[in-house]
Write a structure and sequence with these properties.
heterodimer, B: six-stranded parallel β-sheet
Chain lengths: 210, 275
Amino acid sequence: MHINTDIWVLIAVFFTLSVYTFLWKDNPLYKFAESVTVGIGMGFALVQWWNLSVVDRFWVPLTTRGAAGYVLIIPAIMGLMMVTRIIPRFAWMSRYALAFTIGAGSGMVLPRAIQANVLQQLYATMLPINVSWTGIMVNLFIVVGVLAGLIYFFFSKEHKGVFGGIANIGIWFLMVGFGATFGYTVMARLSLFIGRVLFILRDFLGMQLF
Amino acid sequence: MKFLAKLEKLDRRIIYIIITIAVVLPFFFRMGLPISVSPEVKSVYDFIDGLTPSDCVFISGDYDPQVDAELSPMFDAIVRHCFEKNVKVIVANVFNLQGIGLVEPRLKKLAEEYHKVYGVDYAFLGWKQGFSLLVMGMGENFKKTWETDYYGTRLEDLPITQPIRNYDQIALVVDLTGSGVFGAWITYAYVQYRQKIAAGITAVMAADAYPQLQAGQLIGLLGGLRGAAEYEQLIHHPSLGSVGMEAQSWAHIAIILFIILGNIGYYAAKKNKEK
């Protein structure tokens, strides 16, 4: 075991442990670590955004491409119009920029999203139910699950009798789905904790793990 | 019965301590628990394994430090596989600019390890404003969309990007993300250009991606640290994912035991009340 005395590793260890002190109870160390994390994250994103977006994509082409670059003034003005929301007297100007963004965005998204999230998902549910292992055990399961789930969310008819029974089956499918999501969530949180433990053992304490 | 009823009100700090022990101890005492490979991870591996040195894989590191522990092992494993197969690798951060600081040093380190040349075997494009527009633009004119790499070199001047006109020259897009942006890749790259896409996502998001996988919109899926561990097994290079999975398994056993104890405590408390 060889303890790493690199200042950045020590700082990272300090913040890792500070964040985990919250598990005991809320305290100033945790608050400090939380604020620094948020601040650094925002600062990093802001500097990168300024350099890669404002400078590289706007200022450089505008000043180096001559007349061809002047077209960039239009989106730049629209961007500034968005900011007018903070001045009540000129806030109306932001609506034009927003209207353009929402209109163009919706136009681009809607046809593709319907294709990706509705039609292609529907095709994937129209499965052959035959006497094969896949046909009965997998495809039938998917078809019944989709139909029962949809019936559960159909509220125009009271959930009674056969209809109510199918809706109940839908609840079971939904519960299995929620259970899988919760299991995955637990796994994800533990993975992040394992990541920090690995950092302390390997990078700070210098343990040979693999 | 009273002791059992107390289990329901177990101090959460005791649970934290036991979970911590369950996570830390496996690093000192290895049990060598097996890691089986799921079909969704195998299909990503098989696809990349079938590529030739003339093919190119585009990896988008759309994640930030919060999920680094889950996604960086995936990034390492996939880049390793590509480099071993001499497949060209282009890395970018299309949807998350915080990913720049995470993937760039890893890519450089891996390239050094495999003696790969920048601009010939791999390239790093970083982040550019545009998000979904960038994904669509890549389908029309790759070089015009990105213009330069992260270091300011024109893509026309890099041998790796010279032949790339659009998605036709990109064999696979791998999106590594801790959010739902893999859906944007499907919406804009798969639906419009039929681009083959694989997703490496955090375990939290994994359940949401299975409908897309089942619909054939994704060729494969790596879910959480487990997905990374499985890929490491396939490339015979156990690393962060594989080491972490043993701790993960023991922590899961501890959580399952706590759930059982909690339920016993609940029923014991209920019985006590009835008495």
